[in-house]
Amino acid sequence: MRCRVVARYRWPRLIRQLGNAVSGNALLLLGNAFVLSCAPPTRYEPPSALRGYDILITRRDSLGQGIAEGLERRGFRVHRSVRGGSGPAAYLLSFTFREAEPPAVTWLHVRLADTRTGAIVAAVSAPLDSLGATTPERARAIVDSLTASPP
Q: How far apart are CA 90 and CA 82, in angstroms?
C-alpha cells in the first residue's frame, strides 16, 4: 500500500518541477500555439492561365533579355530580380540538350514554372536550328510558342 501512495504523489511533484524550470518558455509556447491555432488556413490557388502570373527572368544573356522584352510587349509583367510578397510568379528556366548520335541535333528547352509549387505552366521544346538563325528570331519564336493558347 505504501508504494501506491508514494507513486501517487510523484507525478504532481514532477509536473510542478518541470513547470518551474520552463515556466517562461512554456507560457511562450502556449501563446504561440494559441495564435497559430487561430490563424486562418492559407491555400494557394494557382492562376488558371499564364496571364495571371508575373514572369521572373533572371537571365542576363541576350536570349533571356529578348524573351523578357517579348513577354513585356505581349502585356505580361516581367521582373528581372526576385521579389517577395508578390502574387503568383512563374520562373523562366531554359537549357539546351545535344543528342549524342548523328545527326546530333541541339534542342532548346524552355519552361515557365510556378515558383510556389514547381508546376510547369508553359513549355517549349524545339531544335535550336528551327527557331531561327539569330537570337532575336529565337526569342520571338519562343515567346510566340509560350503565349499560344492551348488547343
A: 11
What does the alpha-carbon distance between residue 84 and residue 81 come to, in Å, rounded to a whole number?
10
* Non-local CB neighbours of 77 within 8 Å, separated by 6+ positions: 54, 55
Strand partners, 2: none
- Mention every residue, 6+ apart, whose C-beta is less than 8 A from residue 82: 56, 58
pLDDT in tens, 27-55: 444 444 444 454 455 678 888 889 999 99
| pLDDT tens profile 65-78 | 999 999 999 999 99
Contact yes or no for 53/44 (Cβ under 8 A): no
Backbone conformation region of residue 43, classed left if phi is above 0, alpha if psi is from -120 to 50, else beta: beta
